[in-house]
Amino acid sequence: RQSRGMLAILGLEELVAADAEELVAKAVALGLDPDRRRAASERIAERRGALFERDEPIRALGAFFEGTLR
What is the pLDDT of residues 2-35, one digit of tens each? Predict the structure, then answer.
């Protein structure tokens, strides 16, 4: 679920796999297609701020620890 969410934020939903077999197929296809791989890399570079410059995960982790340690 976490990876699916991260890929959605990056606009790379097409890389989400339903199972291990599909994951391998998508990885091989991406590895064999330099244009597609370059496009995915560019999209990651363009959108990385949307993924890493977010307060929500930090607040959620803090809330988890506060609830666990009480």
Answer: 889 889 989 999 999 999 999 999 999 999 999 9
Contact partners, residue 29, CB within 8 Å, separation at least 6: 36
Question: CA 10, 13, 18, 22: dihedral to nearest 10 degrees?
Answer: -100
Amino acid at 33: D
Radius of gyration of the chain (CA): 16
> Taking the model in full, what pTM does it have?
0.66
Its sign, for the CA torsion 45, 37, 20, 18, is positive
Amino acid identity of 34?
Answer: P
